[in-house]
Amino acid sequence: MKHTHFKILTAAAMAILATTACTKKLDLSPTNDITAAIVYNNPAGYKQALAKVYGAMALTGNTGGVGSADIPSQILSDEGNSDFLRGFWYLQTLSTDEAGWTYHGNTDPLGIHQMSWSSINQTVAGAYYRSYFQIALCNDFIREASDGNLGSRGITGASADSIRKYKAEARYLRAFQYWVLMDMFANPPMVTEATPIASGLPKQIARKDLFTYVESELLAVQADLLPAKTNEYGRVDQAAAWALLARIYLNAGIYTGTTRYTDCITYCNKAINAGYTLHSKYAELMLADNNLNTDEFIFAIPYDGTHTQNWGGTTTLVHGPAGVPASVSGLSGSWGCIRVTQQLVGLFDANDMRGQFYTSGQNLIMANLLDVSTDGYSSSKFRNVTRSGGPAPNKDPAGNWSDVDFPLFRLGEVYLNYAEAVLRGGTGGDVATALGYVNKLRTRGYNNSTSGNITSSALTTDFILDERARELFWEGLRRTDLIRYNKFTTAAYLWAWKGGVVNGTAVDSKYNIFPIPSTDLTANPNLVQNPGY
Amino acid sequence: MITKRLLTGMLIPFMLLLFPAILFSQGKTISGKVTDAKDGSPLSGVTVAPKGFSNRGAVTGTDGSFKISVGADVSTLVFSSIGFDAKETAITGNTISISLSAVNLALNEVVVVGYGTAKKKDLTGAITTVGTKDFQKGNITTPEQLIAGKVAGVSVISNSGQPGAGSTIRIRGGSSLTASNDPLFVIDGVPLDNAAISGAGNPLSFINANDIESFTVLKDASAAAIYGTRASNGVIIITTKKGKGGKLKVSFNSVNSLSSVIKNVDVLSAGQVSTIVNTNGTAAQKAMLGTANTNWQDQIYRTAFATDNNISISGGIKNLPYRISIGYQNIDGVLKTDNLEKESAAIAINPTFFDNHLKVDINLKGSMETARFANQGAIGAAISFDPTQPVYNPKSNRFNGYYEWLDPTTPTGLNTVAGKNPVGLLNAGLNKGTPERSIGNIQLDYKFHFLPELHAVLNMGYDVATGKGTNYVNDSAATGYVAGGLGGSNNHYKQTQTNTVFDFYLNYVKDLTSVKSRVDVTAGYSYNDYLYKYYNYASYTAAGVKYPGTDPTYPFDKPEHTLLSYFGRAVYSFEDKYLLTGTIRRDGSSRFGPDHKWGLFPSLAFAWKIKDEPFLKNISAVSDLKLRAGYGITGQQDGIANFAYLASYNLSNVGAAYQFGSTYYQGYRPSGYNPNIKWEQTATTNIALDYGFLNNRISGSIDFYYKKTSDLLNSIPAPAGTNFSAYILSNVGDMNNKGVEFSINVEPVRTKDFTWDVSFNATYNKNTITNLTVLPDDPNYIGFPSTNINGVQGFAFLNAVGTPKSTFYLYKQVYGKDGKPIEGLFDDKNRDGIINENDKYKGKQADPKTFFGFSTSANYKRWNAGFVLRASFGNYVYNNIYSNNGRLNQVLGSTTTGNASANYLETGFKGTTDQELLSDYYLQNGSFLRMDNAGVGFNFGKIFKNTANLRGSITAQNVFVITKYKGLDPEVSSGVDNTIYPRPRILALGINLDF
Question: Which end of chain B is more exposed for a tag (fewer CB within 10 A), N or C?
Answer without folding.
Answer: N
